[in-house]
Write a structure and sequence with these properties.
The protein is an alpha/beta fold and 434 residues long. The protein is built from 14 helices and 15 strands. Strands 1-13-12-11-14-15 form a 6-stranded mixed β-sheet, with helices on both faces. A 5-stranded mixed β-sheet has the order 4-3-2-7-10, with helices on both faces. Strands 5-6 form a two-stranded antiparallel ribbon. A hairpin with a 2-residue loop joins strand 3 and strand 4. Helix 8 runs antiparallel to helix 11. The radius of gyration is 22 Å and the shape is globular. It starts with a helix and ends with a helix. Bound molecules: alpha-D-glucopyranose (GLC). Alpha-D-glucopyranose (GLC) binds next to helix 5 and strand 12.
Length: 434
């Protein structure tokens, strides 16, 4: 069977964003941001205060960092040496789900179980030392409100997390209780921050002229330094970093696959932008479009963004690897031409994602520049999609050029690998060293 050409063209068009629309999306994003700066209830983004500005770069000392934001939890012991230098002294990492063994993110799991698991990892990171005092920075990458650097309270789970008893609670309190239950009384969480904020702190510690931080991975979100916000509880320099929670940006037109996926997702109506761009969701959209092409609408093939990446990377003449992946997941032995179409579809979904993300970055660059010149700057990005997904980074760069013209020479995106851990340690240092 060969795919229907018209239907295929129509699906590709659904995932294509031309130059004019790209401009409109960037402008709408900026408008939504400006609305939120005046009155946050008017924006589709939560625009959460982080209570940190930029680090001075002189932060020093040994800290624990907990990176809790996806299905892999990591705990680090990090020594900051100032001048952008640091060393990771210890690293412990474990997944929150091992299929068939345990699952701490499902509806059946409780806050006690989840934080108990994390406390055990922290205990391992300090080698069971219950004497030495440790300050901990906690990267908690879910939308949370806070009015100081410690007390982030989870508003709502995102990224399909569903553990009971965490929404509405202060994450650090749950952590402290779990540590106490294990007899760990010498670890004191002093800072909690979103992963985007952690990436920005980490990048700014090493590379001056960085004001925007973003995660492009399982989830997607961006923060930036807003110079006009000052608060007595805010540590650091240059104003306050706002965690936009732009995964929830919803003032753009979804296509029929976006709409259909949203309806069956864990939280319909929420995180519309994230569901169009991030790694957790690209595989879902891909699978839905393939099901339509195969006349199996509604069938779930369990395709992931990792499959998409492998399919796009197959540049061989016979597309053997891509054919095998499709056979294994979709259950059909497809002709080479149809495999090539599926490969084109995967590329279209990734390119749309990269263009949307780039439009949001440009909106922030415009916002920071106001009516002035666009200054030389870096946008720090961490995450598997940015780092590993073929076509992602190059299409971000291309879209930034399209949107900024010659000013694009002043703006580049830089990978800040592992920034979530380092940023948490820097935030802890900022809190402790004032
Ligand atoms: C989700 C979370 C957000 C986080 C992002 C990346 O969008 O709501 O807080 O920054 O994922 O991990």
């Amino acid at each position: 069977m060969a795919f229907n050409q018209e239907q295929f063209k129509d699906i590709i068009a659904e995932f294509t964003i031309g130059g004019e629309r790209l401009h409109e999306i960037a402008a709408t994003f900026r408008q939504d941001l400006q609305l939120g700066l005046r009155d946050v209830t008017q924006s589709s983004m939560r625009m959460l205060k982080s209570y940190v500005g930029l680090p001075s770069g002189k932060e020093t000392g040994e800290y624990l960092a907990l990176d809790f934001g996806g299905t892999n939890i990591r705990v680090f012991k990090i020594r900051l040496d100032g001048d952008g230098k640091f060393e990771i002294l210890k690293r412990v990492g474990r997944p929150l789900i091992v299929p068939g063994e345990y699952n701490y993110i499902s509806k059946d799991a409780t806050a006690e179980q989840m934080f108990g698991f994390i406390a055990e990892m922290i205990d391992d990171a300090i080698d069971g030392d219950h004497e030495t005092k440790f300050y901990l920075g906690h990267t908690f990458s879910f939308p949370s409100t806070q009015d100081n650097l410690y007390n982030a309270r989870l508003i709502i789970w995102t990224k399909e997390f569903a553990t009971q008893g965490v929404e509405g609670e202060v994450a650090n309190d749950l952590l402290v209780e779990a540590l106490k239950r294990r007899g760990v009384n010498n670890v004191e969480p002093v800072a909690v921050l979103n992963d985007t904020v952690a990436v920005l702190l980490s990048a700014a510690y090493k590379t001056p002229e960085t004001f925007i931080g973003s995660i492009y991975a399982t989830g997607h979100n961006t923060c930036y330094l807003e110079p006009s916000i000052h608060d007595a509880n805010c540590f650091g320099e240059g104003g306050m970093i706002l965690n936009l929670e732009c995964g929830n940006f919803s003032k753009l037109v979804p296509n029929r696959f976006d709409r259909e996926y949203d309806e069956k997702s864990e939280k319909p109506g929420e995180q519309r932008f994230e569901k169009m761009v991030s790694g957790r969701y690209m595989g879902e959209l891909f699978g839905m479009a393939i099901a339509e092409l195969l006349g199996e609408k509604g069938k779930n093939y369990d395709l992931t963004s990792v499959d998409m990446s492998a399919i796009i990377l197959d540049e061989s003449e016979n597309l053997g690897k891509a054919t095998d992946i499709i056979m294994a997941k979709v259950g059909h032995e497809l002709e080479r031409d149809d495999v090539a179409k599926i490969r084109e579809l995967a590329s279209a979904i990734v390119i749309r994602s990269a263009r949307l993300v780039a439009a949001s970055f440009v909106a922030l660059v415009w916002q920071r520049a106001g009516s002035g010149k666009i200054q030389k700057q870096h946008v720090a990005v961490d995450g598997s999609v940015y780092e590993k997904m073929p076509l992602a980074k190059e299409n971000i760069t291309k879209a930034i050029s399209e949107l900024l013209g010659e000013d694009a020479a002043n703006v580049d995106t830089i990978l800040d690998n592992g920034g979530s851990g380092l940023g948490a340690a820097i935030a802890a240092a900022m809190a402790v060293q004032k």
